[in-house]
């Protein structure tokens, strides 16, 4: 399966999202959960999608899977997976991709596995949904996948129910399910947030290793900058449904262009800044139901000026560095 | 009325609106959000009026055997009486009794027995529930054990048991319904009272050394009213249905003063010969009554349930 | 598991004992058995002799112990009307009632589950709204009146189905059943539907609520993200989860179905124990009343026990907890 896709992959990046818009048509009004999101993930690369809760990260993930439920709907933009637009694919075509070429890992491992079905049932059905293999073969695949994510005695564990696993183990199972078909892309929605720090570290290391060896691209959705710093190649920062900054993870975290990214990094406690008061971004995230005109960060931005009343575009201020701002922190980059 | 309208439309003058907003008005406007419930309320009011005014508005006194003419028995709806003086809009039963009048008087009995026994059950249940919540300890667990045991048996079985013990009579039907229903009230009141009694105002009343009964009935009970009203409404419907069922089985009210259930039972034997109206129309009256009460009860629950309040 | 079972059995025995006291006091102490048991023509000496023979001169608690002792041996007195052991009378009629109640329960699941599933999957469609309105009616309609209307339509007007009795029966496992013959089945349809009506509404509501709740669960979305077919998502992932509460409630309702068959049996002249108890209350045949009540109580407690055990089989989480 991996061989057949290589030709296409060579030309196009695994995933290219352009001006994605996903809105929720609620009784109270239109919630613009995702409103202009663009980013690219190359083959075998990890993109960290960062933002506060409610910034539209998760909806972006579900939009790529095309699993946005009503009243939500993708209303604009394109999702190019290996050069082909997912937005125009039929549900049946999407179903063939899901779990097969594009897999997803959810946030809360306690909720992602069906409590009344055994692990083997839930794994074998995934194998058989996309390939005509015997149950014995599917079981062998499931066992190998469990072994790959570091679950001891996988044969026994296959016969267990989810409630017999700890949270970390359940997330490993979910990751194993995502890996069953060696997908080209994994959408991981805060997969380690609900876990203990030590387990988080183990899982991160394993995921990184897997991506490197299988060439799987990964969209890693998180609000934790430190996770992104250790794991991702690129970073996309989201604010109020839009990507406000995109670039190499090291460069962005080191010299952020957008004032929001700047503020975000400044508000992370660190050893170097001990004793200093923690900086915080003043004000609150705007309601997605009623976004202000122009730059949505305007009201909280220390650098806001009159021209911010016009919505800035995601502009390449530096090579491979994009920011959605009229007044980016260019002087700091220049000073370095 | 203006407040009711102001609620629905976007409030243009919040200050003015806030002035006229009383809890009762808010309750009325929230209740009126469901047109079905308002319709139900209108129907209930009409039914109650018919039941009260039956002696004045019914074409015939169905209990006065002198006016009944056996020759007019089992006439189809819309038939004329033998002497041409009256039209039987809903037909007649086997005794020549006008069904419309029978239903009006039947409603009186059904509503009285239903609402009356639901009311007594409410008194008994609420008192015991309050006592359980206030006394706590052994009293509480004893009362709640009985409640649990009783609720685990279906209402019809409990009612049958009571009637089997006491014999059949109207009083015993009322007793049976009270025994069936008190447990619902007791459980609800106890639950609410347990929450309420930890509130400061009860502590304050206790510090003032007010007599216990006063704390119970003047302070605790009024605060348990909303849930009590909700289940009370539902239980009236259940009581009417249960009375009808028991009467249908021949265990309820006497044949001389038939309730709706007994009217339906009377028509049962004529059903097979195609004389449907003797059972059909009382059944419709019963159905409309129960559905209307349930619609109102449903909406009351939505409005009065604090967990659902916006 | 066995400790759990033992505790449940002791609890159940306690309830049976409590109910036997209530029934005993209710039937034998509140009513005056002498009035019923002894012919009104009897003179004073005859009366006293009869009272002594029946043990009615003993203190109440001794009378109860005698009653209990006999009850344990299966002796619940003789019917005044049939002059047969009361227990035997009840047991003879039990299969008919059980068949009716079983048919109603199975019918409720067969009809209610698909309707509830549809209403849950497409909550805003016109069909779903009609189904939900129907279920409100199902809760409000008095069973006995619906029964009469069924007779009116299907037996009188259309003449499709017979209105009374069990029809032809065939023997299976030593008991006679209606559903094994075409004639018996046609007799069973209407009463079963009538009795099922309330439960159909219940199953619809439970299923719909369950579907709507389960569809929002992460594991359903995850199942979709795995690329499973909508059929498999609905009928394996969603269905298995809602089956647990639905089975539990319909199981628990089985007892009340048996109790409510009293009404249905009276309408359709179904020769079960419900019809017997109504007749017995009407003629004050107390031994039969006592036997019926005790049997029903026993059945109830057994059903609750069985449902509890079934629940633990269906839900793997409960199984672990009770081990």
Layout of SSEs?
The complex is a heterotrimer of chains A (336), B (310) and C (323).
Chain A (H helix, E strand, L loop, with lengths): L1 H10 L3 E12 L2 E13 L4 E5 L6 H9 L6 E10 L2 E2 L5 H7 L4 E4 L3 H4 L6 H12 L4 H14 L5 H5 L8 H13 L5 E5 L7 H18 L2 E6 L2 H7 L2 E6 L2 E7 H6 L4 H8 L48 E4 L2 E3 L6 H6 L1
Parallel strand pairs in A: 3-8, 3-9, 6-7, 7-8
Antiparallel strand pairs in A: 1-2, 1-4, 4-5, 9-10, 10-12, 11-12
Helix pairs in contact in A: 5-6, 6-8
Chain B lengths: L1 H7 L5 H7 L2 H9 L3 H23 L21 E2 L6 E2 L10 H37 L1 H15 L3 H12 L3 H27 L3 H8 L4 H12 L1 H24 L11 H12 L5 H28 L6
Antiparallel strand pairs in B: 1-2
Helix pairs in contact in B: 1-3, 4-5, 4-13, 5-6, 5-8, 5-11, 5-13, 6-8, 7-8, 8-11, 9-10, 11-12, 11-13, 12-13
Chain C lengths: L1 H29 L2 H5 L6 H11 L5 H13 L13 H36 L4 H15 L2 H15 L12 E3 L2 E3 L4 H34 L2 H8 L4 H39 L4 H11 L2 H29 L1 H7 L1
Antiparallel strand pairs in C: 1-2
Helix pairs in contact in C: 1-4, 1-12, 5-6, 5-8, 5-10, 5-12, 6-8, 7-8, 7-10, 8-10, 9-10, 10-11, 10-12, 11-12, 12-13
Family (chain C): Belongs to the binding-protein-dependent transport system permease family.
InterPro entries (chain C): BPD_transp_1_N (IPR045621), MetI-like (IPR000515)
Subcellular location (chain C): Cell membrane
Structural summary, described in words:
- The complex is a heterotrimer of chains A (336), B (310) and C (323).
- With 336 residues, chain A is an alpha/beta fold.
- Chain A has a single domain, classed as P-loop containing nucleotide triphosphate hydrolases (Rossmann fold, 3-Layer(aba) Sandwich), CATH 3.40.50.300.
- Chain A is built from 13 helices and twelve strands.
- In chain A, the strands form two sheets. Chain A has an eight-stranded mixed β-sheet with strand order 6-7-8-3-9-10-12-11, sandwiched between helices.
- In chain A, a hairpin with a 2-residue loop joins β9 and β10.
- In chain A, α5 packs across α6 and α6 packs across α8.
- The radius of gyration of chain A is 21 Å and the shape is globular.
- The N terminus of chain A is likely disordered.
- Chain B has 310 residues and is mostly helical.
- A two-stranded antiparallel ribbon of chain B has the order 1-2.
- In chain B, α1 packs across α3.
- The two termini of chain B are 22 Å apart.
- Chain C has 323 residues and is mainly alpha-helical.
- Chain C has 13 helices and two strands; from the N terminus they run αααααααββαααααα.
- Chain C has a two-stranded antiparallel sheet with strand order 1-2.
- In chain C, β1 and β2 form a beta hairpin.
- Chain C starts with a helix and ends with a helix.
- The relative contact order of chain C is 0.14.
- The mean pLDDT of chain C is 80.
- The interface between B and C is large, with 40 and 43 residues.
């Amino acid at each position: 399966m991996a061989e057949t896709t290589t030709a296409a992959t060579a030309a196009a990046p695994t995933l290219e999202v352009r001006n994605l818009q996903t809105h929720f048509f609620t009784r109270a009004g239109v919630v613009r959960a995702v409103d202009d999101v663009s980013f690219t993930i190359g083959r075998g690369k990890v993109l960290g999608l960062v933002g506060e809760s409610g910034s539209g990260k998760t909806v972006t993930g579900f939009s790529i899977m095309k699993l946005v439920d009503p009243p939500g709907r993708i209303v604009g933009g394109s999702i190019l997976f290996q050069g082909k637009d997912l937005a125009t694919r039929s549900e049946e075509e999407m179903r063939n991709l899901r779990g097969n070429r594009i897999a997803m890992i959810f946030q809360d491992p306690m909720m992602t596995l069906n409590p009344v079905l055994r692990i083997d049932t839930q794994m074998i059905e995934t194998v058989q949904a996309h390939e005509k293999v015997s149950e014995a073969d599917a079981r062998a695949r499931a066992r190998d996948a469990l072994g790959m994510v570091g679950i001891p005695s996988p044969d026994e564990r296959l016969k267990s129910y989810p409630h017999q696993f700890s949270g970390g183990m359940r997330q490993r199972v979910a990751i194993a399910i995502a890996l069953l078909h060696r997908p080209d892309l994994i959408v991981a929605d805060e997969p380690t947030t609900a876990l203990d720090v030590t387990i988080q570290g183990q899982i991160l290391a394993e995921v990184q290793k897997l991506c490197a060896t299988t060439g799987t691209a990964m969209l890693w959705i998180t609000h934790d900058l430190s996770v992104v710093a250790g794991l991702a190649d690129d970073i996309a920062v989201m604010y109020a449904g839009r990507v406000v900054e995109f670039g190499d993870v090291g460069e962005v975290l080191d010299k952020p262009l957008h004032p929001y990214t700047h503020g975000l990094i400044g508000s992370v406690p660190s050893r170097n800044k001990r004793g200093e008061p923690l900086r915080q971004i003043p004000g609150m995230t705007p309601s997605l139901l009623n976004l202000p005109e122009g730059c949505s960060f305007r009201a909280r931005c220390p650098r806001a000026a009159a021209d911010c009343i016009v919505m800035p575009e995601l502009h390449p201020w530096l090579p491979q560095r994009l920011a959605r701002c009229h007044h980016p922190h260019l002087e700091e980059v220049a000073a370095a | 009325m203006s407040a009711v309208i102001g609620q629905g439309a976007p409030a243009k003058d919040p200050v003015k609106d806030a002035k006229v907003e009383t809890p009762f008005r808010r309750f009325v406007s929230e209740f009126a959000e469901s047109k079905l419930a308002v319709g139900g309320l209108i129907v209930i009011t009409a039914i109650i009026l018919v039941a009260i005014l039956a002696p004045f508005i019914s074409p015939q006194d169905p209990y006065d055997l002198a006016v009944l003419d056996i020759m007019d028995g089992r006439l189809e709806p819309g038939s004329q009486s033998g002497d041409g003086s009256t039209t039987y809009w809903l037909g007649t039963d086997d005794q020549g009794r006008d069904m419309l009048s029978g239903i009006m008087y039947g409603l009186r009995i059904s509503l009285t027995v239903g609402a009356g026994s639901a009311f007594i059950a409410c008194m008994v249940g609420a008192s015991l529930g309050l006592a359980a919540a206030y006394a706590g300890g052994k009293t509480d667990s004893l009362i709640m054990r009985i409640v649990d045991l009783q609720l685990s048996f279906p209402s019809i079985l409990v009612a049958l048991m009571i009637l089997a013990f006491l014999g059949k009579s109207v009083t015993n039907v009322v007793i049976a319904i009270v025994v069936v229903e008190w447990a619902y009230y007791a459980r609800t009141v106890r639950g609410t009272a347990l929450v309420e009694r930890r509130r400061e105002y009860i502590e304050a009343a206790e510090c003032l050394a007010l007599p216990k009964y006063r704390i119970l009935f003047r302070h605790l009970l009024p605060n348990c009213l909303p849930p009590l009203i909700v289940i009370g409404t539902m239980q009236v419907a259940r009581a009417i249905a249960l009375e009808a069922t028991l009467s249908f089985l021949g265990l309820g009210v006497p044949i001389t003063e038939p309730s709706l259930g007994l009217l339906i039972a009377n028509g049962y034997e004529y059903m097979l010969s195609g004389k449907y109206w003797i059972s059909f129309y009382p059944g419709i009256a019963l159905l409309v009554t129960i559905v209307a009460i349930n619609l109102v009860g449903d909406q009351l629950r939505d409005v009065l349930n604090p967990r659902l309040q916006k | 598991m066995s400790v759990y079972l033992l505790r449940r059995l002791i609890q159940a025995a306690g309830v049976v004992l409590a109910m036997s006291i209530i029934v005993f006091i209710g039937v034998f102490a509140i009513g005056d058995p002498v009035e019923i048991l002894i012919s009104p023509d009897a003179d004073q000496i005859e009366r006293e002799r009869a009272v002594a023979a029946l043990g009615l001169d003993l203190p109440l608690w001794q009378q109860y112990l005698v009653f209990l002792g006999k009850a344990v041996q299966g002796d619940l007195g003789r019917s005044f009307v049939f002059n047969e052991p009361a227990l035997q009378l009840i047991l003879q009629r039990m299969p008919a009632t059980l068949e009716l109640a079983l048919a109603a329960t199975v019918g409720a699941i067969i009809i209610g589950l698909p309707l509830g599933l549809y209403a849950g999957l497409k909550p805003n469609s016109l069909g779903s709204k009609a189904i939900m309105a129907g279920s409100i009616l199902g809760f409000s309609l008095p069973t006995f009146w619906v029964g009469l209307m069924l007779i009116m339509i299907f037996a009188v007007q259309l003449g499709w189905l017979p209105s009374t009795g069990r029809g032809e029966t065939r023997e299976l496992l030593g008991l006679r059943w209606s559903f094994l013959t075409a004639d018996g089945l046609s007799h069973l349809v209407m009463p079963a539907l009538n009795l099922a009506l309330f439960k159909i509404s219940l199953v619809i509501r439970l299923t719909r609520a369950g579907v709507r709740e389960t569809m929002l669960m992460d594991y359903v979305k995850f199942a979709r993200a795995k690329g499973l077919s909508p059929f498999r998502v609905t009928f394996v992932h969603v269905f298995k989860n809602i089956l647990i509460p639905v089975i539990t409630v319909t199981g628990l309702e089985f007892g009340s179905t048996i109790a409510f068959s009293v009404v249905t049996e009276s309408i359709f002249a179904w020769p079960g124990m419900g019809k017997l108890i109504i007749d017995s209350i009407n003629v004050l045949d107390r031994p039969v009343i006592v036997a019926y009540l005790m049997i029903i109580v026993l059945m109830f407690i057994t059903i609750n026990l069985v449902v509890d055990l079934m629940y633990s089989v269906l839900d793997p989480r409960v199984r672990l907890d009770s081990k």
